[in-house]
Structure formats: C-alpha cells, structure tokens
Amino acid sequence: MKIALLISALLFLAATLLLLSGLLDQHRRARQVAQRLDGKPLSDHRVSHWLQALGDSRIGQRSVKLDNETQMLLNRLGWRSARQRSLFAACQIGIPVLALVLSLLIQSVFFPQVTNYWITPAFATALGYLLPKRLLAAAAHRRQRQLAIEISTLIPLLRILFESGMAVEQSLRVLSIEGKQLLPALTHELRLILTRVDSGLELGEELNKATQLLAVDEFTDTCVILQQLIHQGGGAMKSLLGLKLLLDDRRLTRLQEYISKMSAKMSVVMMLFLFPALLIVLAGPSFTALARAFGR
C-alpha cells in the first residue's frame, strides 16, 4: 500500500513538473518574441530563463508584492530591477516546493514507518518559505553596514572635490565613475540616482528618496548636507567636517563596545577551558595523594 502510494506521488510530481516545464517554456518563448521585437539581446541560459519565468508568474509576483517587508529589504539590498525581483520571487516559490519534495522522498525511503507522515514535510515547507527572506534580511543588513563604512571614505573625497571647485552633481558623477573599486556599494547607489537625474528629475529629491530606501543614518546625514549645499550653494564644508568627526567617534565607540564584548566572551572561554586544566595541574597531586591515603 505504501509502495503504491509512493509511486502515485512520484507520478503526480512528474506530471506536475512536466506541466510546469511546458508553461515555463511557453512563457519563455513569448518573452523571447517580445525581446526580439524590442531589439534586446537574448540570453541562452535555460536555468535563468526558467527562474525568471517562474518569478514573473502571477504567484511569484504576488508573493513579493503582498509583503512590504520583502520589498523594503530588496530596495536596501539594491535589487530594484524587474529581473532581480523575479529571481527572488522564483527562490521564494521554488525553495519550499523543493524542500517539500526532498522531505517526502527522504521520509519515504529512510523512515517509511513514521506515524505522523505530514509533520516533517510541513516543517520543511515552512522552513523553506522562511529561509529566503531571512537570508535576504541578513544580506540587506550587511549591505547597510558596508554603506555606513564607505561613508567615512566618501566625505573626505567630497570635500576634496568641492574644494577644487566642482558642484554637487559633478562631484557625485566623478565619484560614481572613478570610485567603483573604492566604494562599490555607494557608487552603485550614486549611479542609480544620477540615472534618474538624467531623465529629468531633481537631484535633491532623488537623494531624499535614496535615504528613505536605504535607511542608513550616515548616508541620510550626508544627503542632508548635500541638499543644503544644492539649495544654498555653500556653507556646507564645516558641516561635512563635523559629520566626518562624528562618524569617526561613532566608529570608535562601536569598536570599543565590540572589544569589551569580546573580552567578556574570552573570559567565559578561559573559564570553560583554561580553569579545568589549571585545576588539574594544581589540585591533581593533592587529589592523588588523598586517594592513595584512603586506599591504604
């Protein structure tokens, strides 16, 4: 009975995969036709086509659009294009399905006598659904820390360019081109801002929108000073210098907190590993002498 149930489950899974493959292939051909009509180059990578088609489906787009936190994390990570959001939507749908299939196969092969048959698949599906979002949150938090570190390097470069006579937009354009290796995350954001400025939008408003999307305090303070420089035309050099000193003090305070926490953790490690060894070395001979005395 269990073997027949397993065979029927595998056949149902194979039919579902064939149907999904046909739908994805049809969607891929329609997208290729649209790309040919638009004059865009075509990519020959089938896996990326399938992932993008799965992400572009109605379920994939709804899984991303209904969750405001996911959209916020994607913006903080810098994934703002339709292709990147489609790839994440494909992962959001595909990983739970893959976890469900693997858990069913492993349980049916290695643990066929389990009474509660659907507990492990349900737990695997829930874990597969939560895993992409947690990884996305960790990546977004890591990029925010990278942006905060790069701001300390951006401010002296801006002061040098301002002192050479450049305006705000010219300085940002120079940094977006010349600072790709030194400031990779910030130059990416600056290129996006300047692209929207080239389309006719105002630089101050785009800087304000970027601060709301990224939610990095250091970047927000810098953009406030840049907006002041745009509207007033001067008087922001001292503000940049003060902000640089403030950021250095914050970084020093964070390093001191990290060192203090590390020293506390090291004391716990010493108590766990060094104290037993020290106790054996110092109190070992006395314990052995007492054991011998009681033995006699």
Automatic annotation (TrEMBL):
GO terms for cellular component: plasma membrane. The lineage of its organism: Bacteria, Pseudomonadati, Pseudomonadota, Gammaproteobacteria, Pseudomonadales. Keywords: Cell membrane, Membrane, Transmembrane, Transmembrane helix. It is a multi-pass membrane protein. Signal peptide: none annotated. It comes from Pseudomonas lini. The chain crosses the membrane at residues 6-24, 86-111, 117-136, 268-291. PANTHER family: INTEGRAL MEMBRANE PROTEIN-RELATED, PILUS ASSEMBLE PROTEIN. The keyword Signal does not apply. This is Tight adherence protein C. InterPro entries: T2SS_GspF_dom. Its main location: membrane. It is found in: Cell membrane.
